[in-house]
Automatic annotation (TrEMBL):
Pfam families: HATPase_c, HisKA_3. PANTHER family: NITRATE/NITRITE SENSOR PROTEIN NARX-RELATED (PTHR24421), SENSOR HISTIDINE KINASE DESK (PTHR24421:SF63). This is Uncharacterized protein. It comes from Modestobacter caceresii. Residues 316-397 form the Histidine kinase/HSP90-like ATPase domain. One of its GO terms (cellular component) is membrane. The chain crosses the membrane at residues 25-45, 51-72, 84-105, 117-138, 145-164, 170-192. Keywords: Kinase, Membrane, Transferase, Transmembrane, Transmembrane helix, Two-component regulatory system.
Length: 402
């Protein structure tokens, strides 16, 4: 028992509901139909044909097996999203009809049909219809259930010697019974569908979360490493030129390269851990330093208001500065770059423009990632030529979040 208990405890809630529903079906069909069969035979006072009884028992066994298989295939279809072979459905109903006919024959007794005769016909069909509740929608289940009830009532009405009273009452009783059982099982299947769909939705949400985290990592890594590698490339060229000229400033440039590399390693680790926070004031200062080191004049306007912005807005605009400056270093031959921060009523606008674009450079992954980042915070990003300058403009509501 402890082993069974541990096995059950190791199942997830959807798996438990699936197992409970599945084995309830198997138990009801696999155990219920044989029990009803013995009840029908028990109502016979005198067996006039052993062949009829044997045929009824064999038919019950075959119908039970086919109904269980049909239920199993139907439940599996809900899991994998494929249908059940119509041949299996037809075979199950054919076996049920044959079993019902054998049941009528066996319940004839000493020449008069017993009260089990209508049930002998209705129950095999009802069990197969119960199995079909795993396959068919509710609107397709009710008419056959009513037909089975009427068919059972018709047996009582039209078979000579049947001692069961008004056929309408029996038809109603059988119809209500079969409908109630079938619809109850259909409801169980519907609940299972809902649970499985919720489980699939949860799985999709987890996959989306993983994909979103991968996108965040790729975007942040692109933004961080793009600027730092560009700075390293520029300073390496400068250091090489200074070395060729035997200038003492070369040592300082090499030291800067080492410092930037160490900072890059630290930032990459922070990106991996998800702890990195972009600070607008720090990014503006870093942009000025990197651009000037690369020989690009840098003017920052409105820098004093950067520290008063909400932290999420600073983070978002910091990424804009990071990407825009990276593009200046990598894709242009700019001599001058201007960064302007304007804070208006309810929004803030950051503009980064440079004079080094001779042709439309198009839009890469960095700007696309920025646009997506700002859109999530209710902001916008525009990038393109403005006369003889290339301008990146980001607008965010001051209550936005990155």
């Amino acid at each position: 028992m402890p082993t069974v208990s541990r096995w059950w405890s190791s199942r997830t809630a959807p798996q438990r509901i699936d197992l409970y529903t599945r084995w309830s079906f198997y138990g009801w069909i696999g155990g219920g139909l044989p029990l009803f069969t013995f009840a029908v035979l028990g109502s016979v006072t005198e067996v006039v044909s052993r062949a009829a009884v044997v045929t009824f028992l064999v038919g019950t066994s075959v119908t039970t097996v086919l109904a269980v298989v049909l239920a199993a295939r139907g439940l599996e279809a809900h899991r994998v999203g494929r249908g059940v072979s119509p041949i299996l459905v037809v075979a199950a109903f054919a076996a049920a009809l044959a079993t019902g006919a054998a049941g009528l024959w066996a319940s004839a007794g000493d020449g008069e049909y017993t009260e089990g005769a209508p049930w002998a016909l209705a129950l095999p069909l009802g069990m197969v219809l119960t199995a079909c509740s795993t396959v068919w929608a509710t609107r397709r289940l009710v008419p056959p259930a009513a037909v089975i009830g009427v068919l059972g009532g018709g047996v009582a009405a039209f078979v000579e010697g049947a001692p069961l009273g008004p056929s309408a009452a029996l038809a109603a009783l059988l119809g209500v019974t079969v409908c109630a059982v079938v619809l109850a099982w259909r409801f169980s299947v519907w609940v299972l569908d809902v649970v499985l769909e919720m489980d699939r939705t949860r799985g999709v949400q987890l996959q989306l979360a993983v994909a979103e985290e991968r996108l965040r990592f790729a975007r942040d890594l692109h933004d961080v490493m793009g600027r730092n590698l560009s700075a390293i490339a520029v300073k390496s060229q400068l250091a090489g030129e200074l070395v060729r000229r035997s200038r003492p400033e070369a040592a300082a440039e090499v030291a800067d390269i080492s410092r930037i590399a160490e900072e890059s390693l630290k930032e990459v680790r922070e990106v991996v851990r998800g702890y990195r926070r972009t600070d607008l004031t720090g990014e503006l200062a870093g942009a000025r330093s990197v651009l000037r080191a690369a020989g690009v004049g840098c003017t920052v306007q409105g820098e004093d208001g950067a520290g008063t912005l909400p932290e999420p807005v600073q983070a978002a605009l910091g990424w804009v500065v990071l990407e825009a400056v990276t593009n200046v270093l990598r894709h242009s031959e700019a001599a001058e770059c201007t960064i302007t921060l304007d804070r208006g009523s309810g929004e803030v606008r950051l503009t980064v423009s440079n004079d080094g674009v001779s042709a439309d450079p198009g839009e890469g992954n960095g700007l696309t990632g920025l646009r997506e980042r700002l859109a999530g915070a209710g902001g916008t990003l525009h990038a393109g030529r403005d006369g003889d300058r290339f301008t990146v403009t980001a607008t965010l509501p001051t209550g936005g979040a990155a």
